[in-house]
Amino acid sequence: MTEQEPAGGRVPRSIEDFVNQLRGFTDRARGLAAGAVPSGFGLPRLPSPPGAMSAAQLRAIDQAVKGQRRQIQGMVAQLQAFDEQLAVFERLLDPLVEWSSTWARLEESVAEFVRGPAPGPPADGAGPTP
Fold this sequence. Notes:
The chain is built from two helices and no strands. By secondary structure, the protein is an all-alpha fold. The longest helix is centred in the middle third of the chain and has 66 residues, at about 50-115.
């Protein structure tokens, strides 16, 4: 046994040897496939490896989801600002509603004072004469 051979009897291979064997296998497979396909008829080519396509699709979905979340965050911020504006408006309206009610009561009491008491029905049941 030499120093490079392990005790199990297997010979260690370098990565280059493995890559060369893999390349040779694919070249032979391509040659066999080319011989099996009639002339004038070519094998279709994939636009990109399927793994790359699904990675690109996942990346697009990820970006779409992130974009939608940013839109929702923007809408939430707008709704919060609108809610704060409505709260300020509500605080402004409360005293105006109270003042308006007070003014209506004052108008009623002044109108009664100016008009005098409401006339009762005539004794004979006929309306007023001109």
